[in-house]
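Re-run with default settings, no changes from the original entry. Doing this only to confirm the output is reproducible before filing.
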Amino acid sequence: MMNDKFMVVEAKRFFDGYNTIFDSGDMDAFSNLFTEPFISVRADGTLESMPTHEMAKDFFSKALNKWNIEGYQYFTTKDYEVIPMGQKSMLVSLTWEMLNESRILIREWRQSYNLIKVDNHWKVITSTFHIN
C-alpha cells in the first residue's frame, strides 16, 4: 500500500505536468490527461460530460480562449489535500490561482479531482468545483 506522503508527491507531480501542458496551449496533449468519459461538475452545479478526448479538447480550448481574454497567463496550485483510495486511485483537492503576466491574481477557486492510474499514468475521471 502506498503511503499518504507518496500520494501527495504523486498528485503534485501530476498537477505540475497538468499546469505545464495547459499553459502551453496544447489542448490535444491536455485532453489525454482525462479518461473517456470525463465528467466535470461546474461551479454552478451543472454537469459537463465529455465522452471523448475530442470533446474535452474542444471544451478546454474554449476555456483557454475565454481565460486569455481575461488576462490569464498561467496557473499555480496550493493547499493540496490527498486521500489515497488504494494504489491506483486518489481524490485530490487543491486551490487554483489564475495569474496574469505580472503574476497578479485574476481569480482563485478550489477544485477536487478523482484520479486513476491507467497504464502507469494518472488520469482524471471527474473534477468538481467547490461551490461556496
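The mean pLDDT is 93. The two ends are 34 Å apart (CA to CA).
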